[in-house]
Amino acid sequence: MEKKKDIVLSGIRPTGFVHLGNYFGAISNWARMQDEFNCYYCLVDWHSLTTHPDTRELKRSVVRLMAELIGSGLDPKRCVLYIQSDVPEIAELYLYLNMLAYQGELEKTATFKDKVRQNPNNINAGLLTYPVLQSADILIHQAVKVPVGKDQEQHIEMTRNFAERFNHRYGNVFPLPYAFNYGDELIKIMSLDGSGKMSKSENQMNTLYLADDDEMIRKKIMKAKTDSGPSSPNSVKPNYIDGLFTLMKIVSAPDTVDKFETDFNHCTIRYGDMKKQLAEDMIKFVSPIREKISVLEKDEKYMAMVMEEGATKARSSAKATLQLVKDAMGLKYY
Ligand code: TYM
Question: CB 102: neighbour CB atoms within 10 A?
Answer without folding.
Answer: 10
